[in-house]
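Duplicate of earlier report; Sensor histidine kinase RcsC input re-posted below.
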Amino acid sequence: MKYPVSFRTTLKISRYLFRALALMLWTLGALLTAFYIFNVLRERETQVRHDFNTSYQQAEWYVRHSLDVMRELKFIAENHLNTSVDSAIQSGSEQHTGTFLQPQFSKFYPSSDCDYMRNTLHNSLGSFSYFLNYWRDNFATAARLNRVFFIGGENQCLANFDLVSTAADQNRMMKVLRERISIYRNGTEEERKNNLSWIAPAVQPGVGFYYMITPVYVTDKVTALLGIEQSIRIEDLMTAGSLPMTVTLVDQNNRRVLTSERGEAKFSADDLPDDPTWFGYISGYSRLVMKKNLPSSSLSVVYTVATSEMIERLKMLIVNAILLNLISGIIVVTFARLFERRMFLPAEDNAYRLEEQEQFNRKIVASAPVGICILRTSDGTNILSNELAHNYLTLLTQEDRLRLTEMICGQQVNFVDVLTGSNTNLQISFVHSRYRNENVAICVLVDVSARVKMEQSLHEIAKEAEQASESKSMFLATVSHELRTPLYGIIGNLDLLKTKALPAGAESLVTAMNNSSSLLLKIISDILDFSKIESEQLKIEPREFSPREVIAHITANYLAMVVKKRLTLWCFINSDVPVLMEGDPMRLQQVISNLLNNAIKFTHTGGIILQVYVKGDYLTFCVRDSGVGISAKELTRLFDPFVQVGSGVQRNFQGTGLGLAICEKLMNMMDGDIEVDSEPDMGSQFVVRIPLYNSHVMKLEPCDGLQGKQCWLQLRNETLATYLIRLLREHGMQVQHYEGEAVADDILITDHEFQSPQSLRAVIRFDGRHNDAPREVASGRWVCATTTPNELPLLLGRIYRVEVAVPQGTPAALAKVGESVNNDDILILVVDDHPINRMLLSDQLGSLGYRVKTAQDGVDALNVISRNEIDIVLTDVNMPNMDGYRLTQRLRELGQTFPVIGVTANALAEEKQRCIEAGMDNCLSKPVTMETLQQVLFSYAGRVRKSRKSV
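Output:
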């Protein structure tokens, strides 16, 4: 799809719109800042207006208070102007004693006549002066009343009563009075009924005199004009506010009368409106003004605050708001530019790249070696496809198209195989996606006809390989059976010869033949085991076993070989080695035996050390020798099958080169591992680890009889010394190295010929040539095998005649071959179709002390069993007429419960499993040695004897 030009234009327009959005955001922030500043100013205006109103209330109270004083004086004057002075004096003499306030008469004009007022109103003024005198003493100071005066109506004479000494200058007052009286008298009749008030400034700034005149009526006739003079201070007309304010009193023409300003006036009369009540800015918003008319007067009070004072208090707030707006603008612009660089500009670049990529993808689809198409999921319509996909789709039948559409719509699977009408195998795989605002499925169509044919060929090849593998297994089983049968005759008869008295020189020949036979058996076993491992037929059979018994059995088998080469085999088993654990003891024994066998073969001087200990969650076996060693280059090929590393003396030894390869694979099957560390001419060390599954460790309690006993060590082997010190101290004994000290009634342990003191209780010497249980060669002189230092506590218990607890499996409990054992109470039936095998088994069992009956097949065995009380049956599994499997099944059907042990030359694992499933108790692989017979029959004979006792 080719993107239209409008798409790129839209991206560019979007970028410009984003810039406009950023500018709008900043503008909105600026508007919010301006609104905030305006709101703060409005709040400050409201506060200032509140301060103005509070101050106005103070001024209004002053004027109303003056008006109340005037009203009270007028009431007193109208009621007492006609009262005689004598009666007034007489009535007041009882209440007041003092000097009466006398009026002062002054001519209002030069032509004025004061005699009339002195004579006519003398008594009335005298009566009024008494009350003024009372007012002077009680109320004049509080009311700031300076003087009270009367102006005659006709004679134009002034009667003045000075109440305080701070009254205005008389001449100045007369001048003002004349001007105001003229205005008053020239006014209308209605205006003359009202009070006349004005303010005369004093010399001191902010201080003046407040005058108020009112007509006094006697018998509804204006008798005189009553006037008062009060001191007024401009500070009394305002209260303390948050801002410094200016108070100004103006007249009805807005002319300044009295002000609190200092110096030049901040506004003129033209700046003030004519409205009696007004609040706002004047002089170009330089001052905030509130004007209000004072009640019952022609005066107005004007409160002003400089706008600069208001802004000065809000300067930091306004500056911070502006700075915040500027910073936010910078942030918005920076973010807008960053967003534009990170989003819009790459999006525009992507638009160009997507257009190119669309064209490129179309060319890829067109040139793809497979069919690619895009199908609409709703109806399966082909939206886009290359030529190859178009050709494939035309090969599909209508049913195939419908099935494909259903799968795409239902989303059940993501691939489908289709066989077209032209026998073409198509594999169609698809994934769901979106294309041009539609739900689509991207389908890939591949012609897999060649692959199908190849798979069919591979299937046939695999089938042939499986048949070949089965043939190989059958061949190995047959070869194993055919080789083991005669080999059993050889090895078994050689074991019997070793128990007989032989002529001189014959014993060495028998030993040589036995060694060769054993080597041949090991080669056959290794080849068979490796083949079973490769074909995954060899199985690990875990069961509970004692690792100590396994080690004891291995060392007992190899000790004679070690002594023969004049080497020393040391075996150290730590006390933390479990007495029981789960695993395959036979395969473990096979691995350790192989490592010991190699160590003995490649070691000519010194010895071999076998250590068994627990490390973490693993039981570890370490086999260390002082042999020829292995170079680092050859270590990498050490575990390869059919490879024998080294040269020279190593090549002189026979073998298949499978031993270590089998060991490694067996350890992997047992969830363990094996590692090697070697250096030429310094020896080798092999470490085997197997996991401790369901292990049980016996916690040894120190023996009271050995507590505090003294043992002296005179040892050359440091490993043995370290091991014995730890072992003996675990049993509570004291251990020290012997340096020639005088000792008495103690134990001395050594590993070499040593002239020991005679005062010792016992001397124990570890001898590598001793292959038996501890033996007392002389009084207090004991010899122990180097393979059983862990049995030392038992010997010490025997010497001190105390009972010592040791872990299970420590003492060697196996009877020696050739040792006289009384087993003549056990009758064993040997069933084998081969006469040599029957004879050999009969001789071996007879050497072990058992009574024997023989049978040549299963039918013959049933006849023998019917006539004799058979205790144990040893039967071959592959016989004519009736083999060992059917014989066992028949015996179990007849209710016979005695042990049945199979003997077979087939060493495959499934053979043993088949024997167990048939009802046998055990299965032995040929060749069967006398030692194996002794171990297996020992347990079953004991079970037969127990069953007899229970009956």
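The longest strand covers residues 222-233.

Merging into the original ticket.
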